[in-house]
Structure formats: structure tokens, C-alpha cells
Amino acid sequence: MNSRRKNLLGGILHDNIVLSGLMVISPVIICGDTLRNALALIYAFSAITFLSVLISSFVPKKLPYTAKVIIYALISAAVYIPVKLAAKEFYPDSIERIGIYYPLLAVNSLIVFQTEAKFFKMKKLDMMISLIFCIIGFDAVMLITGFLRELFAYGTINSKIVDVNTLINGLSQPFGGFIFLGLMCGVYRFIRSFVSKNDRQIRSEASVSDK
Amino acid sequence: MFLINDLITLLAANLILSQALGTSTIFIAAGSKKNLVGTACVITLFTTIGSAAAYFVDKALPSSVSDMRLLFYTIIIGILYILLLTIFYYVGRSYFEDFRKYIHVSAFNCAVMGTLFTINQRAAMDSSLFELGGYVSAGFEAGIGFIIAAIILTAAYRKLNSSKVPAAFRGFPAMLVYLGIISMAVYSLK
Amino acid sequence: MLKKARKERLIWLDIMITLLTLELMSYFYYGIRSVVLAGVCVCTAAIAEVISLRMMKRRFTADDLTCTSDAMILALMFPSVMDYKVAAIAVIFAVIVAKNIFGGRANMIFSPAAAAYVFVLTSWGHQLLQYTEPHVKTGVFDTPAALVNSASHTFNMTGNVDHTDFELLLGNFSGPSGAVSILLLVVAAAVLIFRRSISTGAFIGTICGVGFFACVTPMINSRAGSLKYSLVMNMVLFSAIYIVSDVRIAPKRNYYAFFYGLFIGVVSYVLVLTAAKENAIVIVSVLFTPIALGFKNLEKRIEKAASEHKESEDNDVTESVMSGKETATE
């Protein structure tokens, strides 16, 4: 039961696709410098990934691996078109800023490779729950990154000026994204090991008290 | 002197260090020399041939349906993917098992797709670049850039995975910070 | 092991003494502000080191005092009127991000001071490259007035240097607070080379690289002038001593260290010549870290091959001795 729960909900903390799997990191590094960009990316990633994986789950499993990978990529490329058209309505400014990273979201490894390795081995309902939590995991990282980088690089929150004395302009640059994401990965791992250590401790204490 | 300047320009235009394209792929490639050579060669093949094909797509595609570009690029990469697998299967069957994984890893990732979109973006801004030769050389340059970045990472790979590195930062987080600092130096040269 | 640790501490002591003399000169030209800046940097480095080591579950020992020399190097590369907050952030970056994340002094990849300098250059470049003239003393909490570009900047842009050789030797020209006292730097280099506290190969390589190119493709009409100013300006001498020749970063063997320094010297000179990049040597030294690591990997392989060869030779000798004994008993 526990491992099933972990499989389903792990996308947020235990198996976060960005911090643990290092998937879809280029948009986070380059475009995750403001909250607005982050929101636009969250919308695009969530919509494209959810719809693509859902549609891809109907592709016959008997097909050769290469054919399936190409079909998954084609499906997500097709899903990208209406998502982009809708985004032009909601986030017209961010689309330009995000540039080439918008279409790149459609060929992310979560859709192209993880579907085959993880999601399609599950039952449909389990797959959807797990997928939603994976997407929430990405969204959370994107939000935190966008918020902190915007605050310290530009001294604003969602384009509203905040009183920050010393701004670190470099954080808005790609290298700032690399370093920030590296630090965030380290902190995430530290928290994860701390949580699992505590869990183990609680479990061992419980087993002692059971005896 | 011109060689040094060209090298610096190549470094500054590096898609990994300046645009973080294909970062996860490079982490896999830097693991061993064999992986590095295999992945780098296949990615260079994909970017070079893919760019040539992308030129014809860009030429034929009207700007009113530019959102369809991704679909066409995916078709190009898909065809290339199948072609490469078929060629390797028939030409070098003894290497096929070894090489297959590199083709799988290299086909659909940000390094290849990002290169095609970057070249398209540059050509849209500067019409003098909108020619077959320009596309192919830009694709080849991107592949070389990937190789350079992979070599930079390989040099520090052992240190970044050493037991002396704190457990929380060992491996990927340390690699990200390392690439970040190198990218920072490249950025400050601009 | 004990000998190695003692040697490390002696190196730190040697470097610290030379840095303190440079700081003294900086005090002479820029007043108490430069001393306070160095103090802020050193204290921040020590605190950051203690906290980060604690988080890594390691104890702070005397060997970890190397963080203070990195902080001093950084302080001497800054203008004396640098914002304290920016200096503190830079030192924290040097100690935590450029050093301890990679395992600390036992597993150094970058020169912490160089990485932090580039970090400041990318975020506060304007503030970093604006200096007060020598003998203009700013109060500890005063806002700096009458900032000027460095003499290096003027030289890179126009090829002119409006200072006498004597002024250049004594560091009486605008620039980083501690990196311009050429005479002191020459003495420091000689002392540190004789004490083997810096990599001789890397130092000579850097000087040769810059010097050779300055003569072959001079920046100004006179080759002698080009050679002189190329070595004096853009923190070349300071970086050659404290950053490129850092024994923790440079390859161990002088032969490889020479080429490592040579590449840095040549590339940084070309950058100054073609792009007028101020203090390019610091950026290039960070950029060339993979080359140092590559040389170090090569050294390890050679050592391993040599020890294996020696082992096999020893085995052959023992085998031949044993067979000799056996034939004697027969």
C-alpha cells in the first residue's frame, strides 16, 4: 500500500521530475526567472503533458519501441498547436520571452520516454493520478524558481516592486539558473534524506513499541 | 590569434552553456568516454542533417502556420531516427547493440530540437543566414558545441562524483553548479 | 599525512603574509576603508566556512583557514570603496558555492576567489570596475565620490599610460586596491616561488604566455612598452601569483603547470588585445579550470602507470631471486 502511494504521489517530493530526474530543466534554467514566465510555462507544460500522455496511452502497446516514441512525439507536437493558440490569448507577453522553449516543452522526456518506462505500466486511473502529481511537482519547482529568482534578480514579485536592497542581476541569466537549480537540487536532496531518515526512525520506533 | 577568437566565439555561442539545451543529455554523455563519443557523434549527426532538412521546411512553411513547425520538425527527427537505426542495423550490425542506445537518447531531446528552433530564429532575424549552407554549418557548430561542453564536464566528472562532495550535492547538483560557473565565465566574456 | 597538513598550513601562512603586506600598501593609498573591507571579507569567509562545514558534519580545523586567504585575495581585487554587502555576498559565493559544494579544500575545482570575482563582475560589473584615485581616502561608511576608470581600462582602450615607471612600481595608479603594487608583487612572487608556496611552472607559463604575445603582437608601437604594460595592467601579475599558480588548482608537475599557465596567459592577452576585456586573466583562469583538471587526470594516470610498472618490475626481481635461490638449493 505504502509503495503504491509512493508511486502515485511521489511526483511532488520523492521523485520530482526536475529535482530528482533532471527532466525538463532547460525551460526552468532559462525561462524561470520571473513569476509571469513561470505561470506561462506551468500552463503550457501542464496542458501539453497531461493531454499528450492521456492520448498516447491509447497507442497500441504491441508497436515497436521506436515507432511508439515517434508517435508520442507527434501527438505532443499536435497537442502543442491548440495550447499555443490559447496561450496567445492568456499570456501574450510571456510567449515571446519564452520563445523556443515553448515548443521544446512538447518534446520533453516525461512525454517521450517516461510514458513508456513508467506511466503505461500502470492502470489508467493510477497513471492519471501519478501524472497529475508529476505535473504538480514540476509546477511547484517552477513557481519557487520563478518567485525567488525574480525577487533577488529584479527586486519584484509578479512585476510589482519590492524593497530588496541588493539585487543579484546574474540570477536572471542562464548561469544564474544553472547555479540556482543546482543549489535547489542539493537542498531538495538534503530534505528528502532528512524526511526518509525520520520516517525510518519512526518506523523502527514503532516496531520496537510493537514488540 | 584568430583561432583563439574563433574558439571563444564558439564557446560563447555554445547551446548548452548559453541556452541550457540538452543539459540532461550531457549528464548522461559525460559518464564515460564511450558514452561521450557515442552521444556526441549521434547528436552532431542529428543536428547537422536535421538542420538541412529544417531549411526546406522553413522555406516551404508559410509564416501564417508557423505553429505547425514543431510538427514538421518532429517528423524530420522521426524519419532521421528510423533511418539512422536502419543504417546502423544493416551496415554495422556488430556495433548496433552498443550504438542503439545513443540513437534513442539523442533523437528527441532539447539539444537537437532546440538547435533546429535556434537556427530558425537566427535566420528569421538575419535573412543572410537563410540558406542551406548556413543551416548546415550552424547545425554542425551546435554539435561541436555539445562535444566541447561534454568534454568540459568529463574533465571534472570524477571530482563531481567523489565521496568528498557532500551527499546532497554529489552528482547532478554539483554538475549543475559546475556548468553554471563555467557558463558564468563564458557570459562575462560577452 | 601530517607532513602534508603542515605543508598546507605553511603555504597558507606564506600567502597570508604576502597578502597582508599588499593590504598594508592598500591602506597607505586608500585609507582605513580598504582595511575594513578586507576585515569584512575575512570575517564573512570564516563564518561561512564554519557554518558550511558544520552542515557537512565536518570540524573546522586550522587547515580550513585557507578560506581567509581566498577572502583576502578577493578583497584585494575589489576597489577599496566596494559595497560591504556585495563583498560579503561574493565571499559567501566563494566559500560555499565555488568551494564547499564541491567538497571543500580536499576536492577543489575552482579558485574560489576567481569564481567569486567573475560572479561579482556579472552582477555588479559597473561597481567593480570603478575606482577612487590613490590617496583619495574614503571614510568607512562614506559614499564614494569621484570614481574613475582604472589605468588598465585606459590602456586597453587607448594604449596610453599616463604614469611614470616609478609610479607603476609603487602602485600609484587607479585600480584594484591591492593588485597594483607591482614591486611588492614581484617580491611576493620571488618569496612564494622560493618557498614553493605557489606553482612555479604555472607562474612562469603565464608570464611567458603574456610576454611572448605582447612582443609578437604588441598592443602599442613599442614592443618593450607593450611587454611592460601587458604584465603590469589588468591584474596580470597579481592573478598569475594568487589565482593561476594556486597549488590547489594548478597541475602538480611544473611541466604541465607551465602549459596550463601559458594557455591562460596567451588567451587572456588575446582577449585584452581584441576585445579590450579588463582583467580578462581572472575570467580565463575560471574558464580554463577543465584544462587544469584534465592535466591532473593525466598526472594521476601517469603516476598509476609508473607505480604499476614499478610493481611489476619488483615482482620480476623477487621472482628471479626466488628462482635463483631454488637453483642454489638444488
From TrEMBL, chain A:
Organism in which the protein naturally occurs: Ruminococcus flavefaciens
Subcellular location per the Swiss-Prot or TrEMBL entry: Endomembrane system
Coiled-coil ranges from the UniProt annotation: none
Name of the protein in its database record: Electron transport complex protein RnfE
Membrane-spanning segments: 12-32, 38-57, 69-87, 99-117, 129-148, 168-191
Major localization class: membrane
Membrane-protein topology: Multi-pass membrane protein
Keyword annotations: Membrane, Translocase, Transmembrane, Transmembrane helix, Transport
UniProtKB/TrEMBL annotation, chain B:
Gene Ontology CC entries for this record: endomembrane system; membrane
Membrane topology: Multi-pass membrane protein
Pfam entry (one): Rnf-Nqr
Annotated keywords: Membrane, Translocase, Transmembrane, Transmembrane helix, Transport
Sections of the chain in a coiled coil: none
Compartments it resides in: Endomembrane system
Superkingdom as given in the UniProt entry: Bacteria
Protein name in the entry: Electron transport complex protein RnfA
From TrEMBL, chain C:
GO biological process terms, semicolon-separated: transmembrane transport
Stretches that traverse the bilayer: 12-30, 36-53, 109-129, 173-194, 201-220, 226-244, 256-274, 280-298
Superkingdom of source: Bacteria
Region (Disordered) location: 306-330
Gene Ontology CC annotation, any one: plasma membrane
Keyword terms, alphabetized: Flavoprotein, FMN, Membrane, Phosphoprotein, Translocase, Transmembrane, Transmembrane helix, Transport
Keyword Transport: yes
Protein name: Na+-translocating ferredoxin:NAD+ oxidoreductase RNF, RnfD subunit
Species per Swiss-Prot/TrEMBL record: Ruminococcus flavefaciens
